[in-house]
């Protein structure tokens, strides 16, 4: 895999995914090296001055007025990261830690933090040797940066703390020694430079955005399968109708659903003068409106993320003219807001998906299908309880959709009197993304069974390909069997992108053949 070069321009979402999930190596550019060394020279000049400079010759936060003599400044930096590595709770996922490490390195590479090159190189080495600091879940308020999570990374640079190497828990000092990495002794300003950023919440935003792009396309697929299996109409997805309300996401979702349903013999079977299906229920008819609005929200979130990926977030910062100035750019509000927005739309997409699934199971609304899609209703329960599982997840997602960013608890003796809670918004969004994956998988599982039960009528080529792919691991309709493994097989098909990739491969082939 090609290395991700840091310092020749802003990182991208794809870069974050490649390093965090794919294990791609990182490399500081020559431009980054020059910028780091220039800003360090400015910090060292201030460190030698009798004038106090925040984070260089003073304490931190509410202790910013206390001057620290030269002989105690190394202790100041060491004490900072030790005291701030105060997290608690479950271990954060490896991909999240690698993402925040990459993004902190990206800020260091801007030459606005005053870090020494050897310290930046050590962080680079941790990523490239697969050494992942153990970061507890709780500790960040999303203001003054993700302080506690980043501090658990910073202490590892000094040879303290705990890491994972090849999946095994190790003492940091031993892991660094094994890989030939020399621990650093932090100098003036370096403690702050390592921990004063929004890197954790931003990393989780990038990963969630990557996942949601695929899941929203999958929501088009499961909606199309449900419309097809429930004998709904696709006339409402026509381009001229969608153009009356010119939201780009809505137009894209409707276009995608038209492609997915193209060539369906099931749909053709009720395109007759005696068909009385003038208007379907909202969960079928309005799928492009909801999936499309979610797309547009995701696009906004990505715009915010891309701006943040261009940022140099630290306090204080070293400006190009050598000044070192305090600022408030570490406040996580921009990222926290869009993390909350994404949780809201993902929960709503899941809620609509569950309503479509429920329609398959009710004989009053399923248009001729067996109760609960059961083989022998009464003896068999079919997918009755799969919908319970969906409903339980959706309820949890609605709770998680409550925004974290409207909360604030003052800290640091009221110096930090308004915080973003962006880390919390990011943590709950990860749960929402997982929940949406499971809800869509259950709809896919149920809709596939409904489509099978419409035989001898055949689905559209795209949706049929997805049913066929599912049937490689999940048998078709029949007497009740253990359902949990079927659900998990469908979850994996959705999570790894196979379901939507299978459908879109057929769609692209249809377009080429035209």
TrEMBL record:
Keywords: Cytoplasm, Histidine metabolism, Lyase. It is found in: Cytoplasm. Its EC number is 4.3.1.3. InterPro entries: Aromatic_Lyase (IPR001106), Fumarase/histidase_N (IPR024083), HutH (IPR005921), L-Aspartase-like (IPR008948), Phe/His_NH3-lyase_AS (IPR022313). Pathway: Amino-acid degradation; L-histidine degradation into L-glutamate; N-formimidoyl-L-glutamate from L-histidine: step 1/3. It is an enzyme of class 4 (lyase). GO terms for molecular function: histidine ammonia-lyase activity. There is a cross-link at residues 143-145 (5-imidazolinone (Ala-Gly)). The keyword Hydrolase does not apply. It catalyses: L-histidine = trans-urocanate + NH4(+). It holds the Pfam family Lyase_aromatic. The keyword Cytoplasm applies. The modification 2,3-didehydroalanine (Ser) is found at residue 144. It comes from the Bacteria. Coiled coil: none annotated. Contains an active site 4-methylidene-imidazol-5-one (MIO), which is formed autocatalytically by cyclization and dehydration of residues Cys-Ser-Gly. Its main location: cytoplasm. Belongs to the PAL/histidase family. NCBIfam families: hutH (TIGR01225), PRK09367.1 (NF006871). This is Histidine ammonia-lyase. It comes from Tenggerimyces flavus. The gene is hutH.
């Amino acid at each position: 895999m090609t290395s991700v070069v840091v310092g020749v321009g802003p990182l991208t979402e794809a870069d974050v995914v490649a390093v965090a999930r794919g294990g791609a190596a990182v490399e500081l550019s020559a431009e980054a090296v020059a910028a780091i060394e220039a800003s360090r020279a400015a910090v060292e000049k201030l460190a030698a001055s009798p004038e106090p400079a925040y984070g260089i010759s003073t304490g931190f936060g509410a202790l910013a007025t206390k001057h620290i003599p030269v002989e105690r400044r190394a202790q100041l930096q060491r004490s900072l990261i030790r005291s701030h590595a105060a997290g608690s709770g479950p271990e954060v996922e490896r991909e999240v830690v690698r993402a925040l490490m990459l993004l902190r390195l990206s800020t260091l590479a801007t030459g606005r933090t005053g870090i020494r090159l050897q310290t930046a190189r050590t962080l680079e080495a941790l990523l490239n040797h697969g050494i992942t600091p153990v970061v507890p879940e709780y500790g960040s308020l999303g203001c003054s940066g993700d302080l506690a999570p980043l501090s658990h990374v910073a202490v590892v640079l000094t040879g303290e703390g705990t890491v994972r190497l090849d999946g095994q828990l190790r003492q940091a000092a031993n892991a660094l020694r094994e890989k030939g990495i020399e621990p650093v002794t932090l100098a003036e300003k370096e403690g702050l430079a390592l921990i004063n950023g929004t890197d954790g919440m931003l990393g989780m935003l990038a990963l969630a955005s990557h996942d949601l792009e695929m899941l929203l396309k999958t929501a088009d697929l499961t909606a199309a399968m449900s419309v097809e299996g429930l004998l709904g109409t696709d006339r409402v997805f026509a381009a001229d109708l969608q153009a009356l309300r010119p939201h780009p996401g809505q137009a894209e979702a409707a276009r995608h659903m038209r492609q997915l349903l193209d060539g369906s013999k099931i749909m053709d079977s009720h395109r007759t003068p005696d068909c009385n299906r003038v208007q379907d229920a909202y969960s079928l008819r309005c799928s492009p409106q909801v999936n499309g609005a979610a797309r547009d929200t995701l696009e906004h979130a990505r715009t915010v993320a891309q701006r943040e990926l261009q940022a140099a977030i630290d306090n204080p910062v070293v400006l190009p003219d050598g000044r070192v100035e305090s600022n408030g750019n570490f406040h996580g509000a921009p990222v926290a807001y869009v993390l909350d927005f994404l949780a809201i739309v993902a929960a709503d997409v899941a809620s609509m998906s569950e309503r479509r699934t429920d329609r398959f199971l009710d004989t009053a609304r399923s248009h001729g299908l067996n109760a609960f899609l059961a083989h022998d209703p009464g003896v068999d329960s079919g997918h009755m309880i799969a919908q319970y599982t969906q409903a339980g997840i959706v309820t949890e997602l609605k709770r998680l959709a409550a925004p974290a960013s409207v909360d604030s608890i003052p800290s640091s003796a009221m110096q930090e009197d308004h915080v973003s809670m962006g880390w919390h918004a990011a943590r709950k969004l990860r749960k929402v993304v997982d929940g949406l994956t499971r809800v869509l998988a259950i709809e896919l599982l149920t809709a596939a069974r409904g489509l099978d039960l419409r035989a001898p009528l055949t689905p559209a080529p795209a949706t049929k390909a997805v049913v066929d792919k599912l049937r490689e691991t999940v048998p078709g309709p029949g007497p009740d069997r253990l359902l949990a493994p079927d659900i998990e097989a469908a979850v994996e098909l959705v999570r790894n992108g196979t379901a939507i990739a299978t459908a879109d491969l057929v769609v692209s082939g249809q377009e080429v053949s035209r």
